[in-house]
Every structure is written in structure tokens, then in C-alpha cells.
Amino acid sequence: MTRAQLLEGFGHPDIFVRSPILKYFGDSQDQGTDVTRAAIATVERHGWNDAFEWPHQIAALAVDQEAGRWLVAELLREGATAAGLNTKGHLMRWFGTAPLDVVEGLLGEVTGSPLWGRDAEIFGLPQSGLKRMPAQERVEFRLALSTTSPGQCMDQLEDALSRAAAAESFPDVMVERLGLIGDRHAEMQSRIREIVMSWLNGAGPDLYRAGLGIRLAGNLKLDAAIPRFLEMFSFEWDWWNESIQAAIVAMGTPEALAAAIAGYPKAEFGGKHFLASAMGDLRFPHMQADLLELLRAEEDEMLRTSLGFALARYGTPTAMAAARGVIDDWPEDADRFSIAEILYAFRTLLGEDDAAMQGWRAQFEQWRIQERFMLDGLRVVLEQPFEDVGRNDP
User: Fold this and answer.
1) How far from 373 is each of 269, 361, 367, 369, 378, CA to CA, in Å?
2) How many Cβ atoms sit within 10 Å of the Cβ of residue 251?
3) SS3 letters for 224-285?
4) What is residue 383's DSSP assignment?
5) What pLDDT was estimated at residue 256?
6) Helices in 98-174 by DSSP H: which ranges?
7) How far is CA 383 from CA 73, 114, 133, 387, in A?
8) What's the rounded Cα separation, in Å, for the pair 42 and 196?
9) Sequence-ordered list of residues with C-beta below 8 angstroms from that of 379, at least 6 positions apart, any chain
10) Tens digit of pLDDT for each residue in 1-31?
11) Residue 238 reports pLDDT greater than 50
């Protein structure tokens, strides 16, 4: 599959072709604004409910001035065809991560949205935490940093690092603040690198500092951390493992993927699963052969599913044939429909069709009906008016 063919997938009439294409690009390091424009055109053509199965995934794409103006208009739009509350929460977060020149030019309009400052409530998250800063907090912090001198930034960094080292719970770490401070000046990044490696290489696992170190190593593209990552898989802590997967993908380099491939055979089951998932998000054509070799040697059926999905995303005849073989080995496994989704989209764009593809699509349609039923019920709950209550109120 070429990039041009994948972009054409946004214009396909079948939602089960368009949706995997959106997720493919959202998970990818290849995110030009042409991808964003194609996704926006799809929403405008089909509406929020029918453009994609999970329309909030558009918020993983790149934002420029044109996309920013559209994003703000959608945040403010009301009525039957407007985005749902959950999707608007993701759109608000999307605005918070946009380039600062886009944010500054549109901030006056966004503050008119009833969701401004309240996106965390939609997702039931604390206002400040490790996973993600609410849009208003993120924007205001970024704007303040933009006028901060290197010396002031260093003071903020040292204070944040001290609080992180003393954190007694994961949300207290405020990893996004550290990352944003580090992005402000190059000398900040060198200081963070030094601290991160000391946290990761400390004697024994320090739960919070090591978790923070994993996330920051990915943000800083710190390839030197990967050998330690592979050792940390032995602790079998899912939230560490998920962070390691995300960090390897965030590094975005052939060296990071090569290290993941090299570490796979020695990893425990959980580590292998997360490494395989990273291989599906971070792809380099010359490494397809390495993934094929891992699949040939893997006997565990669950791990074969993970490797099959990673290979399917390569979109070459060889990789798709290997991924199809994983499905055929155990067609009753529901998890293997993740492979079928990407194969269905790619093969449809190539003009292929067969009985298996028709059967997959029938299953996709059945699941979509069930999902819409559940989401309609959830929407009724989410779209109740916000009400400020005290912490001890019933």
C-alpha cells in the first residue's frame, strides 16, 4: 500500500475502510496536514456519526491554521449534526496540543465554549495528573512558558523534578509539565536526560520516578534508555509496559524499532505483547523481514495475534499474506478481528474481494450496531448539564 492509496481510503464509501485508515495514520509517525485535511473532509461529507466508527481518533492528527479554525468551529457548533460531548472533549484536548501560533490566534473564540476548562470532567479525570493536562491548564502553561527566560525555566524545572522525586502517587508527578518545560530550551532537555537515566538505572524499581522516566525518555527520544526498558519488562507491571510501548513509538527511529525487535525473544510474555504492539505503530520497510521471522518462531497464539496485527499494517503482499495466515490458523479468536479490520480496509482499496472479506464485514456491521446501542445510552448520561457539587455531596 502506498501513502497515496491510503489517503484515498478517506474518500471510500465504506466506513469499515475509512475507520482503520484514520487509526493507521493516528498511530503513525507520518502525520502530514494532508492527512488531517482528508479526515476533515470525511467528517464534512458523512457527518460525525457516520464518518468513522470512532471519530474522536481524528484528534491524534496534526493541526495547522486551517485545521485549527475548523476544530474551533466544531467545538462551538450546536445542533443535531454537531459532534457529541465525548468527541468535543477530545477536540478540546486536540486544541490544547496544537502549535502555539494556532492556539494564540484562536484562543479568544475557544474560551467561548462551555467546555473550556471542563474537558477533564467529561472523562472523569482529576484536573491535574500524569496522564494528560486539561486543555485550559495546558494552554495557559504553554503561553506562560513562551515568555519565560532560560534561567526561570531552569528554576521551574528543578522545582518540578524535586516534586516528582518526592511524589507519593502517580498523578502528583505532572509529567506533561516536565515535558513542556524541557521542550522550551535545549539546556532543559540535557538536564532532564541526566535525571531520567538516573531514575531508570537506580537500584530496584522506584514506582513513580521510573514511570515518569519512561514517559520522559520517549518524549526526549532517548534511545539510550531502551536497554533498561527491556530489563524493566521483567517486573510485569502493565502500566509500566504500556508506557514503555508508547515511549518506543514516540522515539520514532529505526534504532528504537531495531532494539524492540532484538529484545523481543528474551522478553517475558507481557513484554513481548507490548513490544509487538510497538512494532505495529512504528514501521520501517526494511524491518518487515525481522517481524516475519519473529512470527515464524512464535508459538504462543496470543502473541501471534499481536505480531500478525503489526505485520498487517505494513500493507505489502507478503506481510498481509502472513497476517491472513494468523487469522486462518484460529478464525474463532475474536482478537484476530483487529487484523481482519486492517486487512479488509487495505485489500478493499486494492480492489480485492472474497468470501472471507464479506464475512468479516458482516461481523463488523453487527458489532457497529451493538456499539451504537451502547453509545446512545452513554450519550444520554454524558450530555446531562454540568452541575458543580461539593466533594461530600451525594
Assistant:
1) 35, 19, 10, 6, 9
2) 25
3) HHHHHHHHHHHHCCHHHHHHHHHHHHHHCCHHHHHHHHHHHHHCCHHHHHHHHHHHHHCCCH
4) T
5) 92
6) 100-110, 119-122, 135-146, 150-165
7) 19, 12, 22, 12
8) 42
9) 84, 85, 86
10) 899 999 999 999 999 999 999 999 998 877 7
11) yes
Q: Cell numbers at residue 21, please?
A: 485508515
Instruction: List the grid coordinates of 288.
Output: 518487515
Query: Could you tell me the three cell numbers for 390?
Result: 461539593
Q: Around Cβ 288, how many Cβ atoms within 10 Å?
A: 18
Burial environment of residue 176 by CB neighbours within 10 A (0 to 12, 13 to 18, 19 or more): buried
Report residue 20: phi and psi, to 5°. Answer: -65, -30
Cell of 320: 498481509
Cα(359)–Cα(353) distance, integer angstroms: 11
DSSP assignment of 178-227: HHHHHHH-HHHHHHHHHHHHHHHTSSS--HHHHHHHHHHHHHTT-GGGHH
> Looking at the whole model, is its pTM more than 0.90?
no
Q: How many residues are present in the chain?
A: 394
Give dist(CA 339, CA 310) in Å, integer. Answer: 8
Q: What mean pLDDT, rounded, does the chain reach?
A: 86
